[in-house]
Design goal:
2 helices, binds zinc ion, two-stranded antiparallel sheet, mainly alpha
């Protein structure tokens, strides 16, 4: 190995940079949560009425799209989730306060 072999060092850098440029991260675009699609819904009928779900009555439940026959049914469902999550959160607080971990 001869001393001062700067040219090969430069070549290595260029190769590295080129390799990095070639594998430009092309992440497949995951759908964002604010554009729910009826095709992605896990259910086909409204749990309240049994009617077919509507494209304007979708929401997310545990990261999955769920559908309802109209926005009123969806809102009723969202209210129920919030109600239970709030109840669970409030129940958990006293346990922590008691020192139970
Ligand atoms: Zn409904």
């Amino acid at each position: 190995m001869g001393a001062g072999d700067a040219s090969s060092f430069e070549t290595d850098l260029t190769v590295l940079l080129e390799a990095r440029l070639r594998q430009s991260p092309k992440k497949d675009e995951r759908m964002s949560d604010d554009t729910l699609r009826i095709e992605d819904a896990v259910n086909e009928t409204c749990p309240w009425s049994g009617k077919p779900i509507a494209a304007d009555s979708l929401t997310l439940y545990r990261g999955e799209v769920v559908g309802f026959c109209n926005p009123g049914c969806r809102d009723k469902f969202e209210a129920a989730i919030r109600h239970f999550e709030k109840a669970l959160a409030e129940r958990d607080v006293p346990l922590i306060a008691k020192g139970i971990e």
